[in-house]
Design a protein that fits this description.
heterodimer, A: alpha+beta, Aldehyde Oxidoreductase, domain 4, Aldehyde Oxidoreductase, domain 3, 6-stranded mixed sheet, 26% strand, globular, B: alpha+beta, Uridine Diphospho-n-acetylenolpyruvylglucosamine Reductase, domain 3, Enolase-like, domain 1, 2 domains, 5-stranded antiparallel sheet, 3-stranded parallel sheet, 11 helices, 38% helix
Chain lengths: 757, 294
């Protein structure tokens, strides 16, 4: 049979070149910080120097006198409700009478030059009265702890209990540990930035780098006191996000200034300000205990997890939810007792970051799993395989794992990957710990291997109405069929734009697919977080394409008088493969469909037992890390970081591997170097000079083994990809360093002095 | 802020004399960061990047090397890797390729940071700083150049013209601790040089005191022990306990602080390890030289 060989390139399963790739590599991509308007003025933010203080007064007189200044705004100038927040409306857009963390926005200035605006901001006189600050989250729930929010009874954001099985379990083998995880930053390279353009009729258009346009819109509207149709958002070029753009940064501020001055207002944080401009990963204190049989089979697990939420709630509730429901890892455990809490302090606010709740917990449960393995004399890989979840198991909240759960296969797969060659006799120093810094020529260097496995929820959980909207239009343009896909789902670098095109090409058999700018002109796409966009917005685009296709084929059936038709290669093709018409022939009128698409519902968990179908899908990954440690100097070189991950189905294989590589680097960074150091509520290292992220020399080449066990409940069988690598890589690196040094190392990042002393 | 851009050395000196509060820019990898972070607001910038004389290095008639203050780290590595090995090793640890293409040894000295990567290597090599003004030229040993945190002997009308150093008669080493394997500011650093012609040892400590400083007592101790044991001539192996003892004495010469990059205790420990290793590597090279010469 002669089938048409016009299969369009760039369909699902291909890895087409992304439209932003070359531009980013050559420095030509337009990020939000590149936005420009000829008439614009610049906005800057004055921030609190105190972790906790009362504002007695603010005097803006001197700032207003600076030539070129067009506005100075404080909380008194907020027209609507001065409250934003993802879970709780507890965050003022501008501090009102009290500041609760160092860096909290207090006042705004607009001027014709950013330097003028900065100088004017320094002339704002804020009279602060310092207040006692809660800076140790372990003391935040003490009866005598100062209240971060005076209107609350205590400093608790959320407490979660998970109880299952025997309430008083015993076991022949018991192991326990305490673990501490430092505050990681998303460290995205594109600073918070955007441009607000007043429309002259009291409304505003905001162009901004973000992760969820619609949740931004609703918060901005509340503060401005405007309805959604008067506050329109368009996604600007995003330079990384990783959760740090879920909360608002300069969004409201630029709009306030724009509406006040009547001029377009650009705001773009400098690098040091960026460290105060977004939430960070929650530091955590974890106490774990495993009870097991003499063979190492888990009988019970207990965990007590404390997250420092900082001054405002942000996503702390969801982080506690993940820590509580997922914090024991991908294991079969008959009896469970978990308490997870998130608290307010006067530290920097913490919120969403890749893998949240699970990243912190995995360091603890994986360290303890190694300890259990050693105690019972079982291999560290085998103990994970033996206890690992399998499809059909119940997890600790009583939810059936109803698609692949290949824990044993993943951990054995990474074990069986080739190991790196032993250290050369006379190695290039760049291959050794310390690298080009020439601290060892082999002296003191010991190799260690570590393993870790994880699972992570995909999508929003606990009964959240998690949906995405897609509008797909198919029309003839200059005699060619063109599909246009319009969603509000944010492209933050993960490759969604390419994926949307791939779906349209596959479902509609068209070559040309235009991706409409991401804006609030279409319904919500939900958040670009929780590894959810391929699943949820991918599902919405698929559904919208199917609706368009149905209409097109109905038209074709009517005009061609046959029903055995499909769309392929810009043509209408019969079952036999014969081309029976050009697609444009049925597109005299465009076809357009808009679909709001939902995944299977989740449900809230029981507040007393923590039981329930909290999550929609689980994604599993495993890592094996090989490290060389200079045990005398405490310096680490990661020699290999290999991984296996089940992605359900790789719709864009190159993008999948890219996510896994990037996520693995970020997890490794937390294990070895990435920490915002906070002392008494003050950030000590708000710069890339002292907040270190891995360089190309720190990141080893990776072997990535992608498993594709399609999830029957998900569109195309996909499973979220972005987060699991960030979770299992760090604990594997930490385990490898423990193996090399023989040290317990119950804190990350592991600093050189933790190894040498 | 005025931007002054002389195109000759004479003009640079005149400009500095006329604008003593102008901040020299020799590469700008420190200055521009400080300006961006608003840590510093000089009345004027004096851009020395367009002064051709500063970008030259040469051998003087007495066989010494004169390294213009504007020679970049990249050029030190590419053109002087064999001639000034300690400085080249230090240069390789500076920032990223982009920073090494821009940053200069003279700029590093001018900033006078205790963490400057060049300093331990220059100290160990007994290098000198050539300082000039309209009043004339003076030469200051690097060990006497630094007077405090980010402070030096430079007078307001003076500029750094060059670094002068003797091509080494013996092996040199440089080690630096950072918490990642590249692009990192030193947690602590150590420069080491054997001067068999003078029967001396050169040392330089970075990031472990208010200024870069040598460890003269440790250096004299090691040189003395080498002399006493006849090791300069015999080129026998460096006794392990001697290397360890030297490391301890280097550590004792430091006065570090706790900060976000590392604790004082770790810095001291790391210095003792680096000094022991650096001395051992250099000594092993010294022994190898003899073997290859034989």
């Amino acid at each position: 049979m002669t089938s048409t060989e016009t299969r369009t390139a760039g369909r699902l399963g291909d890895s087409p070149l992304r439209p932003d790739g070359t531009l980013k590599v050559t420095g030509e991509f337009a990020y939000s910080s590149d936005l420009w308007h000829d008439d614009m003025v610049w906005g800057v933010t004055l921030r609190s120097p105190h972790p906790h203080a009362r504002i007695r007064s603010i005097d803006v007189t001197d700032a207003l006198r600076v030539p070129g200044v067009s506005a100075v705004l404080t909380a008194a100038d907020v027209p609507g409700e001065n409250a934003v927040g993802l879970e709780h409306l507890d965050t003022p857009a501008l501090a009102d009478r009290v500041v609760r963390y160092q860096g909290e926005p207090v006042a705004l200035v607009a001027a014709d030059h950013p330097e003028t605006a900065r100088r004017a901001a320094k002339r704002i006189v804020v009279d602060y009265e310092a207040l006692p600050a809660v800076t140790d989250p372990r003391r935040a729930l003490d009866a005598d702890a100062p209240l971060v929010h005076a209107s609350h009874e205590d400093n608790l954001v959320r407490a979660m209990k998970v109880r299952r099985g025997d309430p008083a379990p015993t076991a022949p083998v018991v192991v326990a540990l305490d673990f501490e995880v430092g505050m990681q930053d998303q460290a995205f390279l594109g600073p918070e930035s955007g441009l607000a353009v007043p429309d002259g009729e009291g409304g505003v258009d905001l162009y901004v780098a973000t992760q969820w346009l619609h949740v931004d819109q609703s918060q901005v509207c509340r503060v401005l006191g405007l309805p959604p149709e008067r506050v329109r958002l368009t996604l600007a070029g995003v330079g990384g996000a990783f959760g740090g753009r879920e909360d608002l940064s300069m969004h409201v501020h630029a709009c306030l200034l724009a509406l006040h001055t009547g001029k377009p207002v650009k705001m773009s944080y400098a690098r040091d300000e960026s460290f105060f401009g977004h939430v960070h990963r929650h530091p955590a204190w974890l106490r774990y205990e495993f009870g097991a049989s003499d063979e190492g089979e888990l009988i019970y697990a207990k965990a007590d997890i404390l997250f420092d939420g900082g001054a405002y709630a942000s996503s702390t509730g969801a982080v506690v939810g993940n820590g509580g429901t997922l914090g024991l890892g991908p294991y079969r455990i008959p009896s469970v007792h978990v308490d997870a809490r998130g608290v307010y302090t006067n530290n920097p606010p913490c919120g969403a970051m890749r893998g949240f709740g699970c990243v912190q917990a995995a360091f603890a449960h994986e360290a303890l799993m190694d300890e259990l393995a050693d105690r019972v004399g079982v291999d560290r890989v085998e103990i994970r395989a033996r206890n690992g979840m399998r499809e059909g198991d119940l997890n600790i909240t009583g939810q059936v794992i109803d698609s692949a759960a290949p824990v044993a296969e993943l951990i054995r797969t990474v074990r069986d990957l080739p190991l790196p060659a032993p250290r050369a006799e006379d190695p290039d120093i760049r291959e050794l710990p310390g690298g080009a810094s020439n601290t060892t020529h082999g002296e003191g260097v010991v190799r260690g291997i570590g393993y870790a496995v994880t699972y992570k929820n995909v999508g929003f959980s606990e009964g959240f109405d998690d949906y995405s909207t897609a509008r797909v239009r198919l029309e003839a343009v200059a005699g060619e069929p063109v599909a246009t896909v319009h969603t509000a789902a944010a492209e933050v670098g993960q490759g969604l734009i390419t994926l949307e095109q791939q779906i349209c090409r596959t479902e509609l058999g068209v070559d040309q697919v235009v991706v409409h700018p991401k804006d609030t002109g279409v319904g919500s796409g939900g958040s670009t977080s929780a590894s959810r966009q391929t699943y949820v917005t991918g599902g919405a685009v698929k559904a919208a394409c199917e609706a368009v296709r149905t209409t097109v084929l109905r038209r074709a059936a009517a005009s061609l008088q046959r029903t055995d038709l499909r769309l392929e290669g810009d043509k209408i093709v019969a079952e036999s493969g014969e081309v029976v018409a050009g697609l444009v022939e049925v597109l005299e009128e465009p076809v357009e469909e808009t679909v709001e698409w939902r995944h299977r519902p989740t449900s809230p968990i029981d507040p007393e037992t923590g039981q329930g179908n909290a999550h929609v899908q689980y994604a599993f990954s495993a890592h094996r890390a090989v490290v060389d440690v200079d045990v005398e100097l405490g310096l680490v070189k990661v020699v290999a970081l290999d991984t296996a991950q089940d992605v359900g189905r790789a719709l864009n294989p190159d993008a999948v591997v890219g996510q896994i590589q990037g996520g693995s680097a970020q997890g490794m960074g937390l294990a070895l170097m990435e920490e915002i150091v906070v002392t008494d509520g003050h950030v000590k290292n708000p710069s890339f000079t002292d907040y270190l992220i891995p360089t190309i020399l720190d990141m080893p080449p990776m072997q990535v083994k992608v498993l594709e066990y399609a999830d029957p409940h998900a569109p195309y069988g996909v499973r979220g990809v972005g987060e699991p690598p960030t979770i299992s890589s760090g604990p594997a690196v930490a385990a490898a360093v423990r193996a090399a040094t023989g040290k317990a190392l119950r804190r990350v990042p592991i600093r050189p002095e933790h190894i040498t002393f | 802020m005025d931007f002054l851009a002389p195109t000759s050395w004479a003009e640079a000196l005149e400009t500095k004399a006329a604008h003593p509060d102008a901040l020299p820019v020799a590469g700008g990898t420190d200055v521009m960061v400080e300006l961006n972070f608003d840590h510093r607001r000089p009345a004027a910038l004096l851009d020395l990047n367009r002064v051709p004389d500063l970008q030259e290095w040469s051998r003087t008639d007495d066989g010494r090397i004169r390294l213009g203050a504007g020679v970049t780290y990249s050029r030190v590595i590419a053109e002087l890797g064999g001639t000034l090995p300690g400085l080249a090793m230090a240069a390789r640890t500076v920032g990223s390729p982009q920073i090494r293409n821009r940053g200069t040894v003279g700029g590093n000295l001018g900033a006078a940071s205790p963490a400057g990567d060049s300093h331990p290597a220059l100290l160990a090599a007994f290098a000198e700083v050539e300082i000039a003004s309209l009043r004339g030229t003076r030469v200051v040993p690097v060990a006497e150049f630094f007077t405090g945190v980010k402070r030096s002997v430079l007078e307001p009308d003076e500029l750094i013209a060059a670094v002068r150093t003797t091509p080494p008669a013996g092996p040199q080493q440089f080690c630096k601790i950072g918490t990642r394997n590249a692009m990192v500011i030193a947690v602590s650093a150590f420069g080491f040089a054997l001067h068999p012609d003078r029967r001396e040892v050169g040392t330089g400590i970075g990031s472990a005191a208010p200024t870069p400083r040598p460890a003269p007592a440790a250096a004299a101790f090691l040189a003395g022990e080498l002399e006493a044991a006849g090791l300069w001539e015999s080129r026998g192996p460096l006794p392990e306990n001697l290397a360890t003892d030297f490391g301890r004495r280097v550590r004792d010469a430091a006065a570090p602080i706790d900060d976000v990059r590392g604790s004082a205790a770790y810095r001291l420990h790391a210095l003792s390890v680096m000094a022991r290793r650096a001395a051992t590597w250099a000594w092993d090279s010294y022994r190898d030289e003899n073997r290859s010469a034989a």
